[in-house]
Please model this.
Amino acid sequence: MNKTFFKSILFVGLAACMFSCKDDNSPLDGGNTPQGVNVKFDYSQAKLGKSVGSSATLNGSSDVDWTIEVEEGDFFSVEPMSGKAGDFTLTVTANKENTSTDKAYSKFIFNASGRKYPITVIHLEDDIRLEPSYDAETVFSFAQDGTLVSPDLTAKPFTATSNIEWTVKTVNEADTWIKVGPEVGEIGENLPVTVVVDENPFAKVREGKFEVRVPEAMSFQYTVTQAAAPLDYEIKDGEKVLTEQAGLTGLGGGGETRTITLNANADWKIEPGTDSEWLTFEPSESVASLEPVEVKVMVEPNDDMAQGRSGLFIVTFGDGTSEEINVQQNKGEEPNDAKILKALEFALEGDNTDVLNWSSGTNYKDWTGVKFEGGNLVELNLSGVGLKGYIPKEVSQLVSLRVLDLSNNELTASQGLQPVKYGNADEEEAYIPAIPVEIKNLTELTTFKLKGNKIEGVFPSDLVNHPHYFEWDAMTNIYPQSGEKIRYILCVWFRC
Model:
């Protein structure tokens, strides 16, 4: 590059600075004034406050007479509007208040013998203003049918005055029963705010909040309350409506779970009456709903094998109203899980026929190793009792089992099981499992112990798909067998 190029760059830079580097608040001199006219200002703009009457002064000089040109209706005036050659002082005054949250800009012309100089005038912005006609925390009360009770909007309308866009919305999005507006309010005075509610279908007073607000600036919150509807409910067993006179009857003596429906427009809870602790409920309480709620009535077995028993449960609603429902259960009988245990007894005992008392014991709750809840077997603890048989596949019928502990006995591989196929269609193989693959169907089973027996063979790989398999800790609690060959247990996974 040569020196001519650098000189050109320097010239362009200096020229650009002359025209663009001038500060808006710097004195305006006569450097650009045509020959024969010399005008100077101390500042090139006037800043006015937001209020009416706010003013700013500009000082200067001119060697010719001058006049001021202001557009009619502008937000300011200038005094004097003309003058003789020499020093001068101009006073710029706001004629109106700036109610906007934005600055206002305009200009006037200083005319010196036909040469016109524009002077910028800035009207500073107003503070953000939002003025609802009702104070914050005013409570808007509605009747159950949606009629406004107070305040009286015919005497004093609900309006808002604002110099910026504003919004009206519920504080909690779940309060869809409250309808407010406008969603976006305009700039202006005494603009209407609407508040309406849906009819209240529930037998309880409901309350919510809404707000009139300028986002990230200010908010006015209001409370909305609405009167309750009359209590309305229905309790049914199938198609039968349950009342104090028409109760829940025919409950199995061996225990059962009966599902009833409860449809109520109020909060409710359900609990057993006096001497009826053999009844439990799930759920035992709920909030008001327009849809029926299914309630499981879990009935414990009746220990009296000679006669039935009576009881009751009580449904209490949010307003204190209650309904008693009588309950009748048949005489005691063995639950189905007890019958299944009897069928399993021979297979589990094997040659040791005296270790279990399931067939001989009169009260199934006292049988060896069992725990029942509501007629359902939930635990079977037979660790180290001397079992010498095998695990029959019918154990999978005990669907409520949470604990199955058969460890430290002399159980052997199960008998009569069907082959389990595995592999792809081209190389399909099969094996006889050492224990029933159907155990995978006991989805409530969180504890399964089988170690310390004499079970040889292939343990079904499908067990790893059980939802609680990792809780079983199978490598510790299931697979270790007395005298076993480890390769048989893991064969399915490693294709031995």
